[in-house]
Amino acid sequence: MLNSPDADRQDGKTKAEPTSEASGAVRHVEVDQDKQLEERPSAEPQVRSDKAGSGDHTVGEGANDESTEEGPRYAYLEAAATMASDTPRVGMGEDEAGHQRNNGDTLPTSTGQQTNDNSDLSSLSALSHISTGLSVDSDADSAMGDMASPMSTTSLRSSIYEFVEEHGRTFHRYKEGKYWMPNDQLEQERLDLQHSVFMMLLKGRLGLAPIQNPQSVLDLGTGTGIWAIDFAHLYPTAEVLGTDLSPIQPDYVPANCRFEVDDAEDDWIYSPSRKFDYVHLRLMFHTFTNHRRVIDSALEHLRPGGWMEWQDYYAEIQCVDDTMKGTALERWNKLYVEGGKKLGRDMLAPRRYKGMMEAAGFTNVTEERLVIPGNAWPRGKDQKKLGLWQMTNFLDGIHAVTMTIFTKGLGMAREEVELLLVDVRNDIKNLGVHFYFLTYFVYGQKPEAKGKGKRAAA
After folding, report:
1. 372 with 197: CB under 8 angstroms?
2. What is the SS3 assignment for 397?
3. What percent of the chain has pLDDT over 70?
4. Structural domain span for residue 88
5. 426-450 residue pLDDT tens
6. DSSP letter (8 states) at residue 417
7. Does a structural domain hold residue 47?
8. How far separated are the first and last CA of the chain, in Å rounded?
9. How many domains does the structure of the chain reveal?
10. 299-324 residue pLDDT tens
């Protein structure tokens, strides 16, 4: 069982309860630690090595050789494993002139240079001139056949705090208002579906950083804890810690996985002897007011040679053609970025992660940009399925985040927001609007200690 240096233990178990500090702050409160996970399927990767944890590999690849039955919660692994085509990557398949070789279905590629200037909110075309690898299906409706919308399963949740209710949804009370999404059962199901989208995008992998035999892993903004739980299954020798503002993780977790309530922008108070091999963050771009502070904290608490990885949407929705022009979705997207900025958040932060990590002292910093279709408009069964899942994810989450940003950031009336969302939802479901989400994967390594070479793989 995993022991926590930061929490008192009684009878092998610590419940997450608010501390008695006068400020009411909750720091490193453990949700659950010692409840052994009941028999459940292991999140096996698409490609596995013969020896667990051997050699260089990306996250979730070749980590566990045990064979177990698949359950409904891991349906995304089957879908990811059967995808025949490569995930579209920005800038792939270009000719010498820098254009995509696909009969003109996509736009010319960009130079791929890092930009640090602020985007003009009056236009969402800053990154539109890239090759996506997606091509428009002219007969999208009939090609979908009997493809069904994804269904998310749920697991036992901890009801530890009395949450804040707003617009008919519940939100975290600790650091109230910092995170814009709710934490109720509907949102927990959406978060698990969102995890499925990313697993399909990455062909069953949990990340892209070339980690080696990780023994201590930190998942910031863990949500339902599904990523941390999957990682703990794939790397049974690793101690995995997930932190979040909401204690909504399952009661039953692997013995090497636990969760704490914490704010990643606060000072990290882990003991000096506790260092991580891998720090992971997914879809946290609008959560932080100071991304560089989080990067600095991660660098300080990584072991030499350890990795930090961001996985984030670029908030400006992209389109392969002009079919989004003049739509309610385009208007919504402009207001979304503008409202977030007025609330003090850098909604376009992902394009600056690489530069921030390099400035902080990370080495081998790599930026990869993948694309997720907004609905089932592209050609190909695999891309249609990915788009359908993402459409469901988008539709399930758009109301809550819009209400928060548009009413608090832009001062719009709730009724006005509701009317706008009617048209926005129609655009999201419209297969004639060829939009997609540009998704950044940025990872970097803490420099090795002087005089020491690269750690040998286990």
Report:
1. yes
2. helix
3. 60
4. 70-111+120-215+263-270+287-306+315-445
5. 999 999 999 999 999 999 999 997 7
6. H
7. no
8. 22
9. 1
10. 999 999 999 999 999 999 999 999 99
